[in-house]
Amino acid sequence: MAEFKDLAATDFKVGDRNKDVPWYLHDLEAIGPTARELLEKYSKILADGVVAHVLKIRDLAWQIFPYPCIGQFRFLDLSIAQQPFYPRLLSRLTSPSPPTFLDLGCCFGQDIRKLVHDGAPAAALSGAELRGAFLDMGYELFRDRETLGARFIEADVFAEGEADALARLDGTVDVVYTASFLHLFGLATQIRVAKRIVRLLRDEAGVVCFGRQVGTLKPDEDAHPTNEEGKMFRHDGQTFRRMWEQVGRETGTEWRVWAELETWEEWKKGRTAGWGNDEYTRRLRFEVERVK
Q1: DSSP assignment string, the chain
Q2: Which of 10, 16, 207, 233 has the fewest CB atoms nearer than 10 Å to its CB?
Q3: Is residue 116 within 8 Å of residue 148, measured between CB atoms?
Q4: What is the model's pTM?
Q5: pLDDT at 236 over 50
Q6: Do residues 198 and 251 make contact, with C-beta atoms less than 8 angstroms apart?
Q7: Distance between CA 109 and CA 247 in Å, rounded?
Q8: Residues 108-123: pLDDT tens digits?
Q9: 234: β partners
């Protein structure tokens, strides 16, 4: 945890668009084959123009809000396709009766584009994002404003009453994907978000929430300068399961939880920025399925 505590003691503040922070990469040395295929074949961007196009969009997005995942080009990971649940999701989405899918905290909607490119029907897909300008950036990044049939919602997961843009989806979603989102908050707020996810999902067994986030071998809540709450709780598999046990008790539901930290080698792969590389940090992958 020391590295995160050292960051918290710096002058870096949430919303600071300073490009000298450790989580802003000035150059894009390479684009992985999955992202390149999506940009070239789905978006029809010429191969020699892909890097310049991504750099332009990333810098525009940095001015909207300088999340570390923007500075580090993590939106190019297309992380949904790396999840163990992805083949099953894609199989269900391409069946005659596809489930309803929501990407909660979808950023540019890059994972929705990956799903569509892989054959999922856009009409079954929705994305929700706090900052609507990121949704506009998604259309610019993928050049599909007039062709993509998925639904995007500018929404605050904490809004209530008439301000709650997610309310229209309550009780209608079969699968929620949430990546690099829950870890933005302290533990109490993560529980609040998880309970909101329960409301979004259909009130029946078999609904699923899956995703990934930053985790650790030494779970704890620390101060952190890159999110508005000023703190974040990073889980291991055990604390993540305990969190969902609490969510279940408080919502009258029961969940089967699989949560696993990546190995050090998996985490280090592609970690090029100067933070998040302490000996305890890992990525946590999870699947949460309602059983009762």
Answers
A1: -HHHHHHHTSS--TT---TTSTT--S------HHHHHIIIIIS---GGGHHHHHHHHHHHHHHH---HHHHTTGGGG-GGGGSTTHHHHHHHHTSSSPPPEEEET-TTTHHHHHHHHTT--GGGEEEEES-HHHHHHHHHHHT-TTT---EEEE--TT--GGG-GGGGGTT-BSEEEEES-GGGS-HHHHHHHHHHHHHHB-SSTT-EEEEEEEEESS-EEEE-TTSTTSEEEEB-HHHHHHHHHHHHHHHT--EEEEEEEPPHHHHHTT--SSSS-STTEEEEEEEEEE--
A2: 10
A3: yes
A4: 0.92
A5: yes
A6: yes
A7: 27
A8: 999 999 999 999 999 9
A9: 220
Q: Give backbone dihedrals phi and psi of 167, rounded to 5 degrees, phi first.
A: -60, -30
Give CA–CA dist 159/167, Å, rounded: 9
Q: Give per-residue pLDDT as tens, 23-57.
A: 899 999 889 999 999 999 999 999 999 999 999 99
- Residue 190's alpha-carbon distances to 70, 183, 288, in angstroms, are 22, 8, 14
> How many residues comprise the chain?
292
- Tokens linked to 90: 């894609």
Structure tokens at 244: 């969902």
Structure tokens, 174: 């079969």
